[in-house]
Amino acid sequence: MQRDAPAAAERSATTYTPFSSLWNAVTPDALDEARRRVTKLGRADLIRRYRTAFTDGRRLTAYVLAGELVERGVPPCFWHEMLALDRCSVNQRADLAFTDLAWLRRWHPGHASAVRYQRGKALLIGTDAVFHREAGFAIFEGKRPAWKIVGSLSMTERQQWESAYLRSTPTKSEAEATAILSERVQLALLDDLRTTRRTATFGEAESATTLARRHALWRCSRMVSIKVRPRLQHATIK
User: Fold this and answer.
1) pTM of the model
2) pLDDT band (50, 70, 90) for residue 11
3) Can you give the three-state secondary structure of 216-234, one letter per residue?
4) What domain of life is recorded for the organism (predicted)?
């Protein structure tokens, strides 16, 4: 997008800049055109561009790319594999929470029945304008801790794992352990692929694709095993 906020200013920002002030800098037609353009991108390219825009502080660009990823059913937890989220600026934390909430609203609207507070229910099933208002309230200028938002929305373990930022302390700890193990698993998968004979139909490009696919499958299986482990232990005890 042409009218995005300057990257240097965003990276150094220590005060919260609401999305509304960024939207006011562009026309609805410009946003619609940007959304149309990103629909033509492949999933891997979308994630790569999103990571770059997020890291560089190009918030509107990241917002448009995130919206397309949400619509395609790619959970936010897969957008940030190599990003150090704990060192994010206040604006980045707010944006992470916002996109997690957008994911929850798009793919778990039925969760509204489990939410205790009316504002939380409205966030999930209200109009787009209501969502933006209530998301802003929940985020509280990027200052409200993620675990408090998780609690206020009664987010399930699955919903937390799908999120990139909105996680309780136990889920966050498990995710951090998974990230550490993930690097070792990726190296092991790479070593295994190096022993695979290269052919006319399986070269380095195909090897890289296979590595990415196998690593993604491992991460998914790891997430599932963590979620079912307490249930299996409980069943064994009984």
Assistant:
1) 0.81
2) very low
3) HHHHHHHHHHHHHHHHHHH
4) Bacteria
